């Protein structure tokens, strides 16, 4: 009887120890939630006498987020930032707030974001002519971010389109803004706001389209908007 009595008290203790061992990694992941940076460097020589120059195309994505295609040149460096997901420890690149990403895709980092709203796509098209007889060509640099997510710097050329994909977070507070630099001009404004009610929101549309021109920034909703759908919503400023 004494031996049975001892086994009765040891069994609950064993169960507790095993349970703690199983839960420990998950608790550690949830408490850490560290920020991560993935950096990609193009070291392919472009001055190759054997064959013509070829750009390096890089396309990064996570389960729910597409950062779009990057056209990289020799010695060019690109990176994206994100947080490790709270529950699973799996990384993502979607971008939403709070605890967003890439992000673009945007990076998706919070447990709340993972179970929340619809997918969205922000598309940016460069319509600035590069063959300008008045002045030498100037590249368009675009840098988009959310509160916690940095999609990196894009160098765009005429008629090139770039886009990032993400999900609206559980609280519908997802917001992205971008800085645009073109020669001596710049602009810095919001390109997506889940709470926007000022006439150019995408709450009921999946696609949010921006066209960059010499006289400003034009917006239209929908996957295939017509030229007449675009309305100017932003202007260049002098540096």
Automatic annotation (TrEMBL):
Cellular component terms per the entry's GO annotation: extracellular region
Main location: secreted
UniProt xrefs under Pfam families: Self-incomp_S1 (PF05938)
GO biological process: rejection of self pollen
Keyword Signal included in the entry's annotation: yes
Subcellular localization(s) per the UniProt record: Secreted
UniProt KW keywords: Secreted, Self-incompatibility, Signal
Signal peptide per UniProt: 1-32
Family: Belongs to the plant self-incompatibility (S1) protein family.
UniProt-recorded name of the protein: S-protein homolog
Protein's organism: Cuscuta campestris
């Amino acid at each position: 009887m004494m031996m049975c009595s001892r086994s009765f008290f040891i069994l609950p203790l064993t169960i507790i120890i095993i349970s703690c061992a199983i839960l420990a990694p998950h608790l550690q992941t949830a408490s850490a939630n560290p920020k991560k940076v993935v950096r990609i460097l193009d070291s392919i020589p472009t001055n190759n006498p054997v064959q013509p120059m070829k750009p390096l195309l890089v396309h990064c994505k996570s389960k729910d987020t597409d950062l779009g295609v990057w056209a990289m040149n020799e010695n060019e460096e690109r990176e994206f930032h994100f947080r490790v997901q709270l529950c699973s420890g799996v990384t993502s690149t979607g971008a939403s707030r709070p605890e967003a990403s890439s992000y673009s895709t945007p990076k998706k980092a919070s447990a709340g974001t993972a179970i929340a709203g619809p997918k969205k796509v922000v598309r940016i098209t460069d319509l600035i002519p590069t063959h300008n007889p008045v002045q030498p060509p100037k590249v368009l640099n675009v840098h988009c971010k959310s509160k916690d997510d940095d999609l990196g710097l894009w160098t765009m050329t005429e008629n090139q389109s770039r886009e990032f994909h993400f999900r609206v977070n559980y609280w519908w507070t997802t917001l992205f803004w971008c800085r645009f630099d073109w020669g001596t001009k710049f602009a810095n404004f919001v390109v997506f706001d889940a709470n926007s009610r000022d006439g150019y929101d995408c709450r009921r549309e999946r696609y949010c389209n921006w066209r960059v021109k010499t006289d400003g920034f034009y917006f239209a909703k929908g996957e295939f908007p017509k030229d007449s759908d675009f309305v100017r919503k932003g202007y260049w400023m002098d540096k």
